[in-house]
Amino acid sequence: MAKKCEVCNEQDSKYKCPKCRTSYCSVVCYKLHKESSCERACKELSERAAEKGGSGKQNQVGGYAPDDDASVDEGYRIQQVQLDRMVESEKVQEWLREPRIREIIELIDAADDREKALDGALETNKEFSDFVDQLTSVINPEGAPM
Question: N or C end of the chain: smaller count of CB under 10 Å?
Fold first, then answer.
């Protein structure tokens, strides 16, 4: 069952705010969210990160810096050096130009259980599995456990 839009609470959500991960269903709801609650939520996340010593600043990929305390997602967070390696890698950029890879990433991101969706994509899609292998070697070139 799809999650309801957190803005209108009427339609099923199809998208998530890239800053605060709020679910929404349409452009109208996104604009309402962005104009009101997102600004407030992102400011609060930034302030909490600053209090705990995190940067709280936005990075060049559109989200909050990986070392902030934005507890909107649980689990592993990459380090800034790893993010820099991803951004600078021509191989990763090539993979991300592939529409199918981007589509799979978007599906995983929109899933209620992202870990399960990631596992499923890795098991069923060789191309995506190859992309993840390449990405892992770029962000962790020493081969040490992450």
Answer: N
